[in-house]
């Protein structure tokens, strides 16, 4: 479908634009990298101070940095929302990228994951929201 749209559109463009569309077409046909993304969102307890929240971000960052030594644990990010509108009270977020579903499955029972989870639960109001996506499945949709 995308290939056909690029080809049809290319008839109306200059040679330079056609080259750009060709590059786009080749890029779309590349095999997607395999990865699983884990997202966690939490609400801070109401009595927490700004300093305590800052310490929580810093501590989780340091804990996750240590996780980079775990096979299949590729990357992570931690932080507050840029804009609180639409967050429904979630002020803490993290994302972890794993090489594949096997790496993700191995991480869940790992002592490191349990440590990070327990720490996040210690400052959370209610149960944090966890959400995972398999980016290879997303690419196939």
From TrEMBL:
It comes from the Eukaryota. SUPFAM superfamilies: Dimeric alpha+beta barrel. Residues 36-138 form the Stress-response A/B barrel domain. PROSITE patterns: S_R_A_B_BARREL. This is Stress-response A/B barrel domain-containing protein. It comes from Favolaschia claudopus.
């Amino acid at each position: 479908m995308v290939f056909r749209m690029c080809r049809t559109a290319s008839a109306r463009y200059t040679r330079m634009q056609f080259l750009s569309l060709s590059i786009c077409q080749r890029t779309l046909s590349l095999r997607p990298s395999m990865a699983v993304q884990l997202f966690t969102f939490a609400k801070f307890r109401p009595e927490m101070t700004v300093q305590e929240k800052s310490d929580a971000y810093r501590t989780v960052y340091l804990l996750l940095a240590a996780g980079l030594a775990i096979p299949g644990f590729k990357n992570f990010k931690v932080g507050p929302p840029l804009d609180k509108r639409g967050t429904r009270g979630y002020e803490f977020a993290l994302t972890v990228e794993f090489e594949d579903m096997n790496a993700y499955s191995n991480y869940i029972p790992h002592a490191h994951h349990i440590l990070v989870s327990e720490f996040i639960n210690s400052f959370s109001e209610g149960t944090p929201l966890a959400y995972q996506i398999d980016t290879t499945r997303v690419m196939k949709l």
